[in-house]
């Protein structure tokens, strides 16, 4: 079966190479969505879409692969794609094919594959849940606000399911805000939504074709919170065996995606109405959840140290130099030190082999990361055996970099690039196993001592020489 | 023999220990600001030096020399590579590269911050050697200890004060040290070293002219005293020839050494030297009578030709006349009348007398004593110290910043005095074999001992007080970065007022990369260094007119200012306002200089008188003159200020005056975009031109009327009556 899939994938790749885009019709339409419940949660910076599916195999043979179609703009900004079996609450093997693009109904789409634990016999049904998190299709509406005004966001998405299979019954709900309303724009259908409890119900529909109508729906909702997005995070971890520490340094390029101010920022108004005490679309402080037992915290930016930060109970509270309003940017660096033993294990089965496991993120809550560059600096002379991370890695590189007292090759540096992360993955870890011998450990002080010795000797001998003409 | 060897080793060990601890004291007392605040570049000029150093490190030496900076003096730009003294930047870049080579990749900022403290150790070493030549190594050690912690020198060399003076004083002392050695021995090697370090000094600081004039003066005095010798000849001619040729390699100096009046003394003495040498030769060949005639005639002829030549060359423009800064050295009122821009800098003001004591404590009264003691001996090298002392005492009285050049010689002279005192009074050995001259009575012995102990103890007490004073002054007066201000929270815990960086960082993060910022020139370097934005004028005040343009915009009404600023492509205007927290160094207090400088260029449009009240006061409240209330500076400083209070009146804490909302009026041409937490920095954006072609005032008026009229129109519905 697996071989068959591979063959099929190779075929797809081949066709992709020949035609550029593959017609989606090539994918077998072996399923039917008996029930398609779409629940869109907008309470956070990014959109969390949960799809409860009851699927039925309408093929003649048992099938175990379900294809979930994503619009390309969603794929570009997708933070999470995961699937679960409803009954047993177990994660399923799932992935988006990153290199293959398909064309469906005039749109470019990507396909995510969900692999069921066992093939489903023809005519049988099963329930799965697909979670999709992405950071697009939401924008401030209208474009500008004044200081204390309520912030509204506009979410534009497709009203009907965009699935590769026929859908028997479908419903769409929105949740996560105190007030919803539908905005009618040219091209959208008349409003059919109503509020119900804390949700915004946009109706249910029966018998919808695969890749059916692309009718958009525009949902306006109140969201009086900042929308922090880290466009670049450079996270460096320095592992030192001599000091027995792991030093973290993170450089953030932060931007608030909330609505910009209508006119310039008036400090007078901000002071008079005490906006500093209120919560709204501006970002006044950041809370970083650091690993336990961290020490030596610092907070700087490109013009020097920022004195307004506090470390309380494992959390680092940062107050940026200025409140970050919609559209404003703020770049900064934070750092701290942890005991190495919190992250490092000695592999007893093999000689001189260590296993390092580090958290991927320690950033603020409710944040989206466009690009994350994670560098781990291992001691000079360490040899990387393996790097593993549960999140999709864009690229991995092992290089060396010279730092303080690196008189030989320099620190071994493992660089991992990640894209589109969300704050909730911060409990994921990256694992690096490496070999670091005792010889390498003692080589460092020895080479420093030798250099100093030679320098002193050179000075001594130079002192001995005379340039006098007469004696 | 063995004992001698051991003694020498102990001496060496002691000397090394003393030098190490002296360097330690010098460096650590300069670290107050790093410990109290952070590793940060201070004040204004250092920010430019820092920025230039970063450019040098990133782009290399040749690109640096050819650097045309289009991010300052918009739209003129500045030929930065050709108008700066590259010594400081190249040295720190060399240190940076050197440290990288030995496996220490230190951040360039830290190299720059710790540059001055590190070099203060070298200064102490050079002062030691200089004083050794003047007196002996005992005085040398004292002088080195003094210069290491004297506040007069620390004021310009604390950590973070990354200025030309940081390295220049070191080079000054090294050059003088080699010069003294050279003129004492006539050694060509030493005078070459003096010339090389002179070159280094030329590359580092404009104050090199001091050396250029002091060494010739020394020689001239020696010749007048009839102390000409071949040693002097070889030392001076070597130094002058190599030093002058070398100094001409610096792009900013170029042909100045042969074309500017500042350098003519050195050339003249060089010529005189040849004449005197020739005369000496002739004297040894012919009789005294004949020689006298030849001498008188030739001297008269040479003087006449020299002076006429100098005048003629200056007149025809081959030699540049003296610079304004030079004139203001002789006439303290010169700058105030002719070049307000020089007078507007506080460090160009005459020194207040207490400053001498503040900066050197008890050294200041030992200094004349030292000069007197040197007079008693009056060796060739003592003439140098005396000339230096006299010249610099005058200069230091004229300009505050020249206190810096006086401090080293104060340290040397005071060290000579104290060491002389200790030579006499700390000698507790009594002549053993004085049986012949009659036994000295026990009483005399006791009295001598008591006298000696008293003198020693009191001077040790003075020394202790000196160290205490130096530490106190350094910690309290000279260790503030002036970018960050210390303050207290409401609960009394220490806090920092970080408004400057807040606003600069906002500019850097949230404006277009090519945005142009207009501000008074004081903040130009900081905007360039911290906000990384293009400025109109900065602290390199090379173009008076350009500065006057900004001054004129600030002193004009907003529509006129808008026009001026728009013509210069300005996007943002930055003003410093201290009224909310009582920061007295703000733009309103500097405003009169803006008015004066622009009045110098446009006397018809800007008149200083109009900015005062009829009774001649400088006020901001209801009594302020209309011109003042209309000026852009007034409006930008106080815009929305009363609304923090009750919306009608605001209390300006710097000037202690009430500012009325009705005086501020509306701001139609500018839009507030950012104000820092304590209102120290206020940023305004120039509004876009009106899309339907109205001028911005009428557009603003229209909007206000529309807002007001909305209410009125409802009320003022015409009552319609039927006409019957």
UniProtKB/TrEMBL annotation, chain A:
Family as reported in the entry's similarity comment: Belongs to the OST1 family.
Q: Keyword Signal, does the record have it?
A: yes
What is the annotated localization of this protein?
Endoplasmic reticulum membrane
Which residue ranges does UniProt annotate as crossing the membrane?
445-462
Source lineage:
Eukaryota, Fungi, Dikarya, Ascomycota, Saccharomycotina
**Under the cellular component aspect of Gene Ontology, which terms does the record hold?**
oligosaccharyltransferase complex
Report the protein name in the record: Dolichyl-diphosphooligosaccharide--protein glycosyltransferase subunit 1
How does this protein sit in the membrane?
A: Single-pass type I membrane protein
> What span is annotated as the signal peptide, if there is one?
1-20
Asked whether the keyword DNA-binding is assigned, the reply is: no
According to UniProt, this protein's pathway is: Protein modification; protein glycosylation
Q: Name one Pfam family in it.
A: Ribophorin_I
Q: Extract one GO BP annotation from the record.
A: protein N-linked glycosylation via asparagine
Q: Which UniProt keywords apply?
A: Endoplasmic reticulum, Membrane, Signal, Transmembrane, Transmembrane helix
Q: What does this protein do?
A: Subunit of the oligosaccharyl transferase (OST) complex that catalyzes the initial transfer of a defined glycan (Glc(3)Man(9)GlcNAc(2) in eukaryotes) from the lipid carrier dolichol-pyrophosphate to an asparagine residue within an Asn-X-Ser/Thr consensus motif in nascent polypeptide chains, the first step in protein N-glycosylation. N-glycosylation occurs cotranslationally and the complex associates with the Sec61 complex at the channel-forming translocon complex that mediates protein translocation across the endoplasmic reticulum (ER). All subunits are required for a maximal enzyme activity.
Query: How is the subunit organization of this protein annotated in UniProt?
Result: Component of the oligosaccharyltransferase (OST) complex.
UniProtKB/TrEMBL annotation, chain B:
The terms describing its cellular component in GO are: oligosaccharyltransferase complex
User: Cofactors per UniProt?
Assistant: Mg(2+); Mn(2+)
What does the UniProt entry say about where the protein is found?
Endoplasmic reticulum membrane
Q: What is its main location?
A: endoplasmic reticulum
Q: Which GO terms describe its biological process?
A: post-translational protein modification; protein N-linked glycosylation via asparagine
Which family, according to the similarity comment? Belongs to the STT3 family.
Q: What is this protein called?
A: Dolichyl-diphosphooligosaccharide--protein glycosyltransferase subunit STT3
Q: What is the lineage of its organism?
A: Eukaryota, Fungi, Dikarya, Ascomycota, Saccharomycotina
């Amino acid at each position: 079966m697996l071989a068959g899939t591979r063959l099929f994938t190779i075929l797809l790749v081949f066709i992709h190479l020949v035609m550029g885009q593959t017609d989606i019709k090539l994918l077998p339409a072996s399923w039917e969505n008996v029930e398609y419940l779409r629940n869109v949660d907008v309470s956070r910076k990014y959109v969390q879409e949960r799809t409860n599916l009851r699927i039925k195999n309408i093929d003649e043979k048992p099938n175990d692969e379900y294809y979930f179609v994503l619009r390309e703009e969603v794929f570009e900004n997708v933070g999470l794609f995961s699937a679960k079996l409803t009954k047993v609450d177990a994660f399923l093997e799932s992935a988006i094919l990153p290199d293959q693009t398909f064309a469906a109904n005039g749109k470019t789409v990507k396909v995510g594959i969900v692999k069921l634990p066992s093939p489903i016999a023809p005519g049988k049904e099963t329930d799965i849940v697909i979670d999709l998190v992405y950071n697009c299709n939401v924008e401030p509406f209208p474009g500008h606000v004044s200081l204390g005004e309520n912030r509204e966001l506009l979410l534009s998405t497709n009203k009907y399911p965009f699935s590769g299979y026929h859908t028997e019954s479908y419903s769409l709900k929105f949740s996560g805000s105190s007030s919803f309303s539908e905005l009618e724009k040219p091209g959208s259908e008349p409003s059919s939504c109503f509020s119900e409890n804390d949700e915004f119900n946009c109706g249910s529909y029966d018998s919808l074709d695969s890749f059916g109508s692309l009718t958009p729906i525009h949902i306006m909702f109140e969201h009086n919170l900042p929308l922090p997005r880290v466009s670049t995070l450079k996270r460096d971890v320095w592992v030192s065996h001599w000091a027995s520490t792991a030093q973290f340094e993170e450089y953030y390029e932060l931007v608030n995606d909330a609505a910009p101010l209508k006119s310039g920022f008036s400090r007078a108004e901000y002071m008079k109405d005490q906006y500093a005490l209120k919560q709204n679309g501006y970002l006044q402080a950041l809370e970083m959840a650091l690993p336990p037992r961290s020490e030596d915290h610092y907070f700087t930016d490109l013009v020097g140290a920022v004195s307004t930060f506090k470390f309380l109970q494992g959390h680092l509270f940062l107050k940026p130099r200025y409140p970050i309003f919609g559209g404003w940017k703020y770049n900064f660096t934070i750092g701290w030190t942890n005991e190495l033993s919190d992250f490092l294990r000695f592999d007893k089965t093999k000689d001189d082999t260590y296993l390092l496991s580090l958290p991927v993120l320690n950033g603020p809550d409710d944040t989206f990361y466009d690009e994350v560059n994670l560098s781990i600096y291992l001691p000079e002379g360490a040899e990387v055996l393996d790097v593993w991370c549960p999140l999709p890695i864009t690229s991995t590189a092992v290089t060396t970099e010279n730092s303080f007292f690196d008189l030989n090759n320099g620190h071994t540096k493992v660089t991992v690039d990640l894209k589109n992360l969300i704050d909730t993955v911060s409990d994921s870890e990256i694992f690096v196993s490496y070999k670091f011998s005792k010889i390498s450990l003692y080589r460092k002080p020895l080479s420093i001592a030798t250099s100093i010795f030679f320098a002193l000797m050179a000075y001594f001998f130079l002192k001995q020489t005379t340039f006098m003409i007469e004696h | 023999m063995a004992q001698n060897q051991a003694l020498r080793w102990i001496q060496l060990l002691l000397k090394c220990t003393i030098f190490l601890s002296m360097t330690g004291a010098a460096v650590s007392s300069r670290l107050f600001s790093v410990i109290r605040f952070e590793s940060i570049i201070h004040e204004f000029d250092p920010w430019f030096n820092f920025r230039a150093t970063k450019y040098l490190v990133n782009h290399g030496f040749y690109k640096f020399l050819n650097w045309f900076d289009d991010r300052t003096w918009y739209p003129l730009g500045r030929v930065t590579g050709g108008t700066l003294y590259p010594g400081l930047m190249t040295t720190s870049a060399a240190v940076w590269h050197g440290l990288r080579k030995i496996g220490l990749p230190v951040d360039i900022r830290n190299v720059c911050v710790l540059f001055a403290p590190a070099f203060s150790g070298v200064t102490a070493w050079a002062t030691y050697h200089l004083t050794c030549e003047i007196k002996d190594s005992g005085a040398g050690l004292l002088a080195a200890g003094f210069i290491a912690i004297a506040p007069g020198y620390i004021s310009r060399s604390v950590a973070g004060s990354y200025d030309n003076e940081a390295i220049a004083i070191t080079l000054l002392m090294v050059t003088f040290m080699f010069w003294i050695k050279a003129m004492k021995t006539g050694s060509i090697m030493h005078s070459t070293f003096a010339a090389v370090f002179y070159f280094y000094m030329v590359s580092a600081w404009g104050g090199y002219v001091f050396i250029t004039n002091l060494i010739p003066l020394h020689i001239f005095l020696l010749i007048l005293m009839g102390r000409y010798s071949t040693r002097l000849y070889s030392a001076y001619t070597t130094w002058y020839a190599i030093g002058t040729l070398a100094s001409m390699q610096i792009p900013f100096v170029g042909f100045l050494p042969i074309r500017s009046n500042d350098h003519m003394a050195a050339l003249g003495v060089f010529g005189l030297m040849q004449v005197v040498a020739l005369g000496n030769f002739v004297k040894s060949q012919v009789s005294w009578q004949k020689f006298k005639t030849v001498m008188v005639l030739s001297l008269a002829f040479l003087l006449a030709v020299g002076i006429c030549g100098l005048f003629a060359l200056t007149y025809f423009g081959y030699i540049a006349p003296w610079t304004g800064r030079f004139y203001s050295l002789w006439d303290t009122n010169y700058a105030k009348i002719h070049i307000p821009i020089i007078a507007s800098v506080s460090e160009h003001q005459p020194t207040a007398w207490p400053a001498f004591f503040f900066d050197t404590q008890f050294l200041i009264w030992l200094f004349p004593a030292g000069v007197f003691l040197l007079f008693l001996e009056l060796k060739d090298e003592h003439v140098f110290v005396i000339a230096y002392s006299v010249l610099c005492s005058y200069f230091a009285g004229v300009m505050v910043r020249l206190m810096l050049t006086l401090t080293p010689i104060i340290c040397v002279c005071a060290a000579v005095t104290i060491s002389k005192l200790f030579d006499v009074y700390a000698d507790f050995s009594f002549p053993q074999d004085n049986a012949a001259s009659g036994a000295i009575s026990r009483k005399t012995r006791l009295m001598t001992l008591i006298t000696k102990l008293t003198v020693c103890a009191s001077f040790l007490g003075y020394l202790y007080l000196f160290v205490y004073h130096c530490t106190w002054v350094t910690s309290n007066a000279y260790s503030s970065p002036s970018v960050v201000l210390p303050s207290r929270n409401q609960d009394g815990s220490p806090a920092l007022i970080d408004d400057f960086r807040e606003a600069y960082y906002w500019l850097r993060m949230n404006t277009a990369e090519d945005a142009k910022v207009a501000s008074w020139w004081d903040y130009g370097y900081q905007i360039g260094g911290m906000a990384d934005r293009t400025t109109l004028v900065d602290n390199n005040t090379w173009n008076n007119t350009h500065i006057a343009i900004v001054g004129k915009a600030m002193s004009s009404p907003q529509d006129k200012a808008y026009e001026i600023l728009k013509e210069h492509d300005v996007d943002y205007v930055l003003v410093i306002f201290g009224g909310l927290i009582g920061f007295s160094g703000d733009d309103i207090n500097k405003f009169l200089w803006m008015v004066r400088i622009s009045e110098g260029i446009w006397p018809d449009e800007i008149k200083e008188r109009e900015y005062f009240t009829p009774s001649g006061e400088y006020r901001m409240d209801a009594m302020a003159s209309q011109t003042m209330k209309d000026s852009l500076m007034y409006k930008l400083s106080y815009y929305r200020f009363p609304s923090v209070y009750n919306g009608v009146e605001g209390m300006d804490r710097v000037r202690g005056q009430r500012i009325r909302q009705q005086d501020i009026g509306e701001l139609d041409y500018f839009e507030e975009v950012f104000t820092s937490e304590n209102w120290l920095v206020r940023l305004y954006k120039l509004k876009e031109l009106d899309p339907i072609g109205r001028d911005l005032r009428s557009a603003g008026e229209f909007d206000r009327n529309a807002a007001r009229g909305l209410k009125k129109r409802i009320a003022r519905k015409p009552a319609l009556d039927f006409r019957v």
